[in-house]
Amino acid sequence: MNADVAAEDTSALALWNDPTAAVAARVDALIAAMTLEEKTAQLFGVWVGASADGGEVAPHQHEMEDPVDLDALLPTGLGQLTRPFGTVPVDPALGALSLARTQARIAASNRFRIPALAHDECLAGFAAWGATAYPVPLSWGAAFDPDLVRRMAAAIGRDMRSVGVHQGLAPVLDVVRDARWGRVEETIGEDPYLVGTIGTAYVQGLESAGVVATLKHFAGYSASRAGRNLAPASMGPRERADVVLPPFEMAIREGGARSVMNAYTDTDGVPSAADESLLTGLLRDTWGFDGTVVADYFAVAFLTLLHGVAADWADAAGTALRAGIDVELPNVKTYGAPLTEAVADGRVPEELVDRALRRILTQKIALGLLDPDWDPVPAALDGTDPDDPESLRGRVDLDSAENRALARTLAEEAVVLLSNDGILPLDRPRRIALIGPNADEPTAVLGCYSFPQHIGVRHPGTPLGIGLPTLRETLTAEFPDADITYVRGTGVDDGDLSGLDEAVWAAREADVTLVALGDRAGLFGRGTSGEGCDAETLTLPGAQQQLLDALLDTGTPVVTVLLAGRPYALGRAVTESAAIVQSFFPGEEGTHAIAGVLSGRFNPSGRLPIGVPRAPGSQPSTYLGARLAQASEVSNVDPTPAFPFGHGLSYTRFDWTDLTVDADEAPTDGEFTLTFTVRNTGDRSGTEVVQLYLHDPVASVVQPVQRLVGYTRVTLEPGEARRLTVTVPADLASFTGRDGRRVVEPGALELRLAASSANPRLTSRVALTGAERHVDHTRRLHATFVQKPAAA
């Protein structure tokens, strides 16, 4: 296929098409040559769906938007194509052909031959039909393994780039502040350091494949009141600075993210989409971010429709542009004719358009879209015949064996063993009662941004596109000699207990009961977890708790298995279940991982990225709470979790010993070095997750009782020991002081080496000395761990 977009006479190249020229010069020349209409055309996207037969994409008809006339738009150009693969089910090869043909048309239609930048969702894998469904981000957090997440993201990026997609709308760097929020499954956890390190690894992986990573949601979306989606955020500047912002700061500085998406929320009356101090002052002027800021879908229009800070579409466009939003997504609403007219009549300075345009064109040049040899045909279609679309069907594999192996490894590392009275691993049980709404449901492993749950549900009868073995199927394979009796018992949220008696009977006849509970992912109330699926309390949805309690009453040992998007209060099961296994939507290989934990085929190493509540009504709460946030005699509400952040059990035992500290004092610009030994004293190999917490007993402003400042995974054979050295810079003790600046204060500290936030193993009491010291975004962000074999 030849898009016929390259200039034939390279000696007559326009400056903006000359790859040997400086990028800034290319951008300047192009902006100078463009009309106002051509400029604004680069500032918006059009929501499309790829054609199932390989023809050009079709505009997506959305209830919030008027139909788009591509023929009318394209002569002046087009900035972005919104979700060509993530809108309708389409064979990946035919989708790639559809996108290529559309890109050729876009380039040929405008006088500068500029193609669009295509973006898609990739929260837990490329959100395209037939693409690998990886574990959701909450499982990434549970794995505590940035290297593995980096590899997964690189694989996602390679798949996206191979079919012509340039930008991915991930990762979500929101820190959980209230587990009732429906989008908890999309987050990495409740700790900013964990979110930052895992999210940065994801960015590094995606960007390594040439795909623009998009950080979202900037900033404070997860701090919404009562855990409601798209609600005002209740937080002060210190919470924003010390909890919400650090993951974004890290992902920009260390990850090299090239795009940021605004949050829907308003904070203290200022919507993020209109917050110039956030999107320009902090993000660009302070942190030095030079990429693009894209609007969360409809966020510019929401300045008028929901926030009431803009009078009309032109006012909304000017407000967002001034704040720092460069690209309106998903469709053109305000950045088209309303913006053009407002610039023409002087209401919006053209300099704001040029500022945004400069960033957009710089990114398109970096992606090679303005080079003379640009070809719309992506790598996946090399050597194919575009004139025979049917010959392409099935030619592109977005769910390779390598992808599935990564998905399984991550799912395995993310399974958290919460409790175990010794029943696990199961020792060849003869009779298993398998009960619960998620025991025989293929999609129980998927989050709301997986293609089957996000898009596929709107196309009944369309095959899932990927294999999703149920827990019932994988357990049958895992325990081939067992007699497994399956009873649904109840639905996820239907409240139907008509199957309760049958479930109780099956449990009484069994040697062990496995009960699979949790969530169904969906959108805007169609599920119990996901965007717009917020929870009033953290009671298990529907009648699941009644089912669980009835099974506990049978006297048969009950192993509770959770496939969920958030943690739930489990009532009596916390103390009465023989074991509890927690999995956060573990993806297409997830049931293999759960079965492997139950059988002991592998040793669990997952740790909680968010605490499991003891009571359903104790939200919002977080382990990062200050002293007043802890249990006390003056309140009858106890926020202490049943299982704390960082908790997770193993089938082996680890001893931590022989802590030494190089010095118990260091200056406020210095560091501490701690050395200690971790030994596997059990009879099988396993992985310990060493966590480092900082406790600051006296500070000028209230501090969390403790916060995570480092972690590492330590894998040991039986009897093996490692000597670990961790270097802790004083910068990790910094926080936002009373004057709004980040400060390192002299004084006493505790460095807690711990197996969880509630299980310190070794503690070092140290002190910072000297003058108070101010630091900024260039401060040291990490403790460094070095592992060496321990002396025999």
From TrEMBL:
Entries under Pfam families matching the protein: Fn3-like, Glyco_hydro_3, Glyco_hydro_3_C
SUPFAM superfamilies hit by this protein: (Trans)glycosidases, Beta-D-glucan exohydrolase, C-terminal domain
Record-annotated Fibronectin type III-like domain positions: 688-757
InterPro entries: Cellulose_deg_GH3, Fn3-like, GH, Glyco_hydro_3_C, Glyco_hydro_3_C_sf, Glyco_hydro_3_N, Glyco_hydro_3_N_sf, Ig-like_fold
Keywords: Hydrolase
Keyword Hydrolase: yes
GO molecular function: hydrolase activity
Family under the similarity heading: Belongs to the glycosyl hydrolase 3 family.
Name of the protein in question: Glycoside hydrolase family 3 N-terminal domain-containing protein
